[in-house]
Amino acid sequence: MNLPMEFLLVVGVLALYLQDSMLLLHYDEVVLERSGWRWRASTGSGFELAGRRVYLPNPFRPTAPTFRLTWLDDGADARPEYWAGLNHFVAGLAALKGGCRLLWWLLLLALPLLLWRFPHPLALLALTAVVYAACAWLVVQLWRYRRVFGLSDGEARSIAFEALCCPPHAINLIRRVSLRRGLRGNAIDVASRVLPGEDAARTGRAIGERMALALDFAEDDARLLKAKQRLEVLR
């Protein structure tokens, strides 16, 4: 069966967006996502790919800053997280939100509707122009705030180049920048600080399941035993 080119184009755009959103987590990794002042945590899905847990963030929320960190490292040699600096970083990401949301609407809603109802070449050309204008605006904002985001000039140029070359990836610009920054400290300590009680307990149970599996294979591992003691904070 020959599928219409319009259908394949929409599927391709969606696939590129979801592929760029997806993370493959090691058994000791946790993803923390911030929405306003509220945090959410995940240890990934039950589905494994190449020995790692698949994590797919909410595709309808491309502007939530996302961080990944490990509960296995005790962080003794690392500086603690500077939370006022993190709030400044997240505030700076607001400069990218409008462009990311606009691209989401243009590529995932306007494009399918246009191809379905009015696939005129001029209409598609106009949509393409608006898409690349939005990408260019994001690149300008990224460059303006590169110091706030902790990016070197080379890193900013690399991210900007990819955003211009692949607009579906540009939707994830906030996720990409926040993942690059990361959070300092141990995942258990950070989760106990930022998550509300029930969410922290649920995250602790998920970490405990992964930890129990790891202990079955390396029950004498000092880092695992130390992590097990720290986990009591979340339970």
Short description:
The protein has 235 residues and is mainly α.
Can you walk me through this structure?
By secondary structure, the protein is mainly α. The chain has one domain (5-181). It is 60% helix and 11% strand. It has 9 helices and 6 strands. The strands form 2 sheets. The protein has a 3-stranded antiparallel sheet. Helix 1 runs antiparallel to helix 2 (83-117) and helix 2 runs antiparallel to helix 3 (121-144). The longest helix has 35 residues, at 83-117. The protein is globular. The N and C termini lie far apart (54 Å). The mean pLDDT is 89. The chain crosses the membrane at residues 124-143. Keywords: Membrane, Transmembrane, Transmembrane helix.
Number of separate strands: 6
Radius of gyration: 20 Å
Q: What is the makeup of the main sheet?
A: 3 strands, antiparallel
Helix/strand class: mainly alpha
Uncertain residue ranges = none
Helical residues, percent: 55-70%
Taken together, the total number of domains comes to 1
Q: Terminal Cα separation, in Å?
A: 54 Å
Mean pLDDT: 89
Q: What best-fitting shape do the alpha-carbon axes yield? A: globular
Number of helices: 9
Strand content: 5-15%
Keywords: Membrane, Transmembrane, Transmembrane helix
